[in-house]
Amino acid sequence: MAKQSVGLKLGTWRGINRSLLVLGTLCFFILVATFSKFYSFRSLLIANDTYCNQEKNSQTQIQVQKNLQIVIQKIQREIQEIQNSPTTESSLKHHSFLADILGLIESVQESLPEIQEVSHLDSPINETYYGHFLGCKQRSVEPGEYFLIEEIRKYVKMKPNRLGKQNFMAANGTFTSIGHACFAMKRELEEYMDYDIGEICNDDWKLAQKLMVHGCDPLPRRRCFSRAPQLYDKPFHINESMWKLPNDRNVRWNQYRCKNFTCLASNTTRKGFFKCANCFDLANHEMPRWVQQANTSDNAADFVAHQVLDIKPGEIRIGLDFSVGTGTFAARMREFNVTVVTATINFGAPFSEMISLRGLVPLYLTINQRLPFFDNTLDMIHTTRFLDGWIDFVLLDFVLYDWDRVLRPGGLLWIDSFFCLKEDLDDYLESFKMLRYKKHKWVIVPKLDKDDREVFFSAVLEKPPRPFR
């Protein structure tokens, strides 16, 4: 009986030792893996080019936490079983051994939340704000650290509220924005933001427009004063400024071929722009537009203003003209008590300056940017000489859907003399048809000024009501 009792104890002792050995080995590997992950995260914060995949790092942290919790639970169960069993010298040693391991693991577990706080690089705000722009070697805690010019760094950095609580917009700070392509045009943007605070800005509108056209849109604000005309004169009275050439004293540019408005209005001078060669000639070229048709046939590409407005009498009050020009469409609509904002940029000529001196509102906006209007607010959108056969089909889709967003139900989309190659016509027409608007006017006519390879497309379409689902 004694030998059997000794054998039983020996077997039990071997079983306990085997389980302890397995458990100790498991704890050892867990500790090694945990500490290696810990130092990997530390190295990530010290050298920003160690890891690029934030989501993977976050998942690794979660997995380490889960594994540690499992090991802690197993050790606690083992300690509980030892406590419930008869007390011996060996069991006390094993209990002490497991308690030491448990304390080490719990200390590692407590350090993991600190890693998560330090690695706030993984926060949704930072991921959305700049995570897609910077490569592994350029990643840093603040997006402004990517640039060298201090003004950019100050502008991009989040500005916390002074009172330390949410403002009326339910935000704890102000997040100033720049276009995503600004990170790819670092040199140009740093040149644009290199100025003396409180002084006159550099004459760099061409650089600014280049940045905007290439996707660095919106541009950052600047803390310098914009250049004004050297010999400024007050504009003409509103009753005459619409159709009168502005005073040359209000010229503020020096990088165009024409140095004054008289030159711009001359048909014999090389102006350096092509989309609107005669649109500064108010008396001869602009005055008849949208009141007289260039072609009196039934298939004219241009429509008369009152014909379009009569489609929705009294309903067209505010609108947007997205075109290249000097604001003549907005001037004409004003005669019908319709307020129109003109969106354009200075393609080779001072279009924005001309529009404002006529007493109209220029919206300096590229095709890259989402329209700064709320949903379902405009009565009409008009476009001419801008959306033509050069535009990519996918880009046209994004533009048209954005126009649909700001156009109210029952509002009018006026496509004015859109021209393209004959072989591309069907594809472009499909882009307009996908809106599923009601067709009030729809014409396709040959474009005869060059050859017979191009056609004009014009239409007046009505946005249908789309009830909530």
From TrEMBL:
Its main location: membrane. GO terms for molecular function: methyltransferase activity. InterPro entries: Prob_Methyltransferase, Put_SAM_MeTrfase, SAM-dependent_MTases_sf. It comes from the Eukaryota. It is found in: Endomembrane system; Membrane. GO terms for cellular component: endomembrane system; membrane. It is a single-pass membrane protein; Single-pass type II membrane protein. Pfam families: Methyltransf_29. This is S-adenosyl-L-methionine-dependent methyltransferase superfamily protein. It comes from Parasponia andersonii.
